[in-house]
From TrEMBL:
GO terms for biological process: GPI anchor biosynthetic process; protein localization to plasma membrane. It is found in: Endoplasmic reticulum membrane; Membrane. The keyword Transferase applies. Belongs to the PIGW family. The keyword Nucleotide-binding does not apply. It comes from the Eukaryota. The gene is GWT1. Its EC number is 2.3.-.-. This is GPI-anchored wall transfer protein. A acetyltransferase, which acetylates the inositol ring of phosphatidylinositol during biosynthesis of GPI-anchor. Residues 329-355 are annotated as: Disordered.
């Protein structure tokens, strides 16, 4: 790779000013429409195993690629193309796959105790995380081709773009799954910090190594680099590895203060240091003369990413357990003195094996969505932070990422409630009362939506696929002058790349390779 091409490529991906929030929402809406089509198809027509993967790829992956390339400026039209067959399918009768309500003569089976430490899977969360990862994987290679609009590439300093959103969404999603150990054992927050820090450091050590290896490879192969993203040596892998460590350091605070409130406070502190503490001027104007100034973007943006991570953690405590109030009730129970063995049994609502209340989760998510969009809107009205900046991860960026992700998580959850409603739900206010212990089989207690197998496979090995995508992106850029590739050949390369990553996920769907 010649020096002139390297400089031209760096210029090609630099100085972008971004798009609009509406435009990015319309592009992202294609993902919701694709899952709506898939849900309508799977709930109305019988599935055929031999064509399961090709069908899923065409419906769930290829539209995402089109939305950020050929249809980037016509995303609403692409959504309509997906919604039209969805509407037709909804005219067909739903396949009967539920179990009947129990009759008084039904034989009772002894109920096995539900594991108390196992979180029931939430299909909408799996779909959200898989689609977020797919958008990220597709964009990191697509951005190197002219078929990918420059308005969707990472902004130089201020502005909103699809790729700017992807970075924050990755961190937000990481925060969601980091809630799992806290939900399984709330006393983990009170455990000694030393062993926890050692454990999480061992867990993220491979990510740190990958970050270091990436620096060495970029510097050693004349690979085009964009210093103003994270700095000269810093990269996203380093940020991703440090966030779980910082979260563990905050456990004593999380035990007493809701994670959402901590995230807001960190976001406010981040903006104050940028505006009043001179860090914004440092990032924009300071020459790269030492190790710290050379990596100023990565260092300064870290607290902002921590705020995004904490807001994701807060969302995780809402959507992962059976009830959105589960985590707060568990923390309150931890603070109460232990009763004698003859005391009344624990509240069944505080069991991870309890039936899900997705309607309550949707309401709670909706309230958080309104709060985050309001804070983002206020930052725009009052000019806080001089605009959205992924480079510095300022106040507007933090709440734009949080608002977007909670909105789309809510969208996926609503699709589950619409396409896969529970057949038998026991309600205290319902005229038809079916006590839970009268159900002949656990599956009758609540019918759960099942995520598409391809998206479940992508979510299962998301980190490994992300690393594979980074390697593939590097190889493509080292062998093809992507900047000068026609739209036709760009789509051929991108389609093969998207199919290859998806097929790898499909073949590995029975095992998990890496976990952060």
């Amino acid at each position: 790779m010649g020096d002139s091409y390297k400089k031209a490529k760096e210029a090609f991906v630099s100085d972008a000013t971004g798009s609009s929030v509406l435009h990015i929402n319309l592009i992202s809406l294609v993902a919701l429409c694709s899952i709506a089509l898939y849900s309508a198809l799977s709930s109305r027509l019988p599935s055929s195993r031999p064509i399961q993967f090709p069908t899923a790829w065409i419906i769930l992956v290829f539209p995402l690629l089109l939305s950020m390339t050929l249809f980037a400026n016509h995303a609403a039209f692409l959504s309509l193309l997906l919604l039209a067959p969805t509407a037709l399918l909804l005219l067909l009768p739903r396949q009967q796959s539920g179990t009947p309500l129990p009759s008084p003569s039904s034989p009772r089976l002894p109920s096995a105790p539900e594991p108390q430490s196992r979180l029931a899977p939430l299909a909408s969360l799996t779909v959200y995380r898989a689609h977020m990862m797919l958008m990220t994987i597709l964009a990191i290679l697509a951005v190197d081709f002219p078929v990918f609009p420059r308005s969707l590439a990472k902004c130089e300093t201020f502005g909103v773009s699809l790729m700017d959103l992807g970075v924050g969404s990755f961190v937000f999603s990481q925060g969601i799954v980091s809630a799992i150990p806290l939900l399984k054992d709330p006393s983990y927050l009170s455990a000694p910090a030393g062993p926890k820090l050692l454990s999480v450091t061992r867990k993220v050590l491979p990510i740190i190594i990958l970050g270091v290896v990436r620096v060495l490879l970029v510097k050693g192969t004349e690979y085009p680099e964009h210093e103003s993203e994270y700095g000269t040596h810093w990269n996203f892998f380093i940020t991703l590895a440090l966030l779980p460590i910082l979260q563990v350091a905050l456990h004593p605070v999380i035990k007493r203060v809701p994670p959402a409130l901590i995230g807001v406070m960190v976001a406010v502190a981040q903006q104050m240091t940028l505006s009043s503490g001179g860090l914004q001027k440092f990032v924009l104007d300071a020459p790269r003369t030492g190790l710290i100034s050379a990596n100023k973007e990565g260092i300064v943006s870290l607290p902002g990413y921590l705020a995004v991570h904490l807001l994701g953690l807060s969302a995780g405590t809402l959507v992962l357990p059976p009830s959105p109030k589960y985590f707060s009730r568990s923390l309150k129970a931890q603070g109460r003195p232990r009763r004698s063995s003859n005391a009344a049994p624990a509240d069944p609502r505080n069991s991870l094996g309890a039936p899900r209340h997705n309607d309550k989760t949707a309401i709670e998510l909706c309230s958080y969505t309104v709060v985050w969009w309001t804070l983002f809107g206020l930052s725009k009205v009052f000019g806080i932070g001089d605009g959205v900046s992924r480079r510095m991860v300022n106040f507007p960026y933090i709440f734009w990422v949080a608002a977007f992700n909670t909105s789309f998580m809510l969208g996926y959850l609503l699709l589950d409630l619409i396409f896969f409603p529970s057949k038998s739900v026991y309600s205290q206010t319902s005229k038809l009362k079916v006590p839970v212990d009268n159900l002949s089989h656990p599956s009758q207690q609540q019918q759960q939506a099942v995520p598409p197998a391809l998206l479940e496979a992508i979510n299962k090995n998301s980190l490994a696929l992300f690393l594979l995508a980074n390697v593939a992106t590097g190889l493509v850029n080292l062998t093809i002058p992507t900047m000068y590739t026609s739209d036709f050949w760009a789509m051929v390369v991108l389609s093969v790349y998207a199919f290859g990553v998806s097929f790898t996920a499909w073949m590995l769907r029975s095992r998990r390779l890496l976990q952060l």
